[in-house]
Design brief:
Elements: H1 7-34, H2 37-63, H3 71-95
């Protein structure tokens, strides 16, 4: 007989990675915005619109049942949703 797996351990690790990647994005964005100029303004607007879009998309998925029905599945899907967005920003900002 196997031991049941605790899904919250994996969710906790994924959440930790989200925090780590998000802090990296915050630092990279801060450097870009601190440099000033048109690039800084564009990045600030992009940051705001991306956060708004990601939040609305997640709420829509939640309201339509797209995140699942169990608490661990909903939590996992929400973290995955934001990790994809944060990871894309980290890659984009690290390029230049």
């Amino acid at each position: 007989m196997s031991t049941p797996r605790n899904p919250w351990l994996r969710i906790g690790v994924d959440a930790w990675w989200l925090v780590f990647e998000a802090s990296t994005v915050i630092g990279l964005r801060a450097l870009k915005i601190a440099a000033g100029g048109a690039v800084a303004g564009t990045e600030a607007r992009r940051m705001f619109s991306e956060k708004l879009e990601a939040g609305i998309a997640l709420q829509t998925r939640a309201m339509t049942g797209g995140l699942g029905s169990s608490a661990p599945h909903v939590a996992s899907q929400a973290i995955s949703h934001y990790r994809r967005k944060v990871r894309a920003n980290r890659r984009r900002l690290a390029k230049g």
